Amino acid sequence: MKTGIQYDLVPSPLGTMLLVASGDALTGIHFEGERYQPAIGAAWTRTANHPLLRAAAAQLDEYFAGRRTRFLLPLAPVGTPFQRAVWKAIAAVPFGATIAYRELAARVGRPGSIRAAGTATGRNPWTIVVPCHRIVGANGALTGYAGGLERKQALLALEARCAPCVAQAA
What we know:
With about 170 residues, the protein is α/β, with parallel strands linked by helices. The protein has helices at about 50-65, 80-90, 100-105, 115-120, 150-170, and strands at about 5-10, 15-20, 25-30, 45, 100, 135. The longest helix is centred in the C-terminal third of the chain and has 21 residues, at about 150-170.
């Protein structure tokens, strides 16, 4: 596998996605133009046939087609211990379910840190794969999503349509 930062731009039903890998792990999956998306650096190499980027693109395609509910991809988390704990808790939210930011903060052992949990959620570098779109406001309101609220709404709608099929298959 190539070293350095490899990337590719892939289409999705919700816009172009930037997939980023370093070594043998994904360092980012972003909707193009989302808040906190890293800038493509001069030292980055666009590699359309990178095995890990191809696997990520294929799994995302399966997700959008309603055939995948979990991702099996190696991730390279770079963040504070609190951010990593939040991202791990987000990854545990099941397909088709949502939890409030308050619940997320409680799950990482910091029930008084709702805003900090929200900030860490917004900094999630792996959109969809670490499903931060499943985190909602206390009353179920769609609040905050680095990729835009329209995408968050579309992702939750996709999972709502597919969740009954997934439950029957289990």
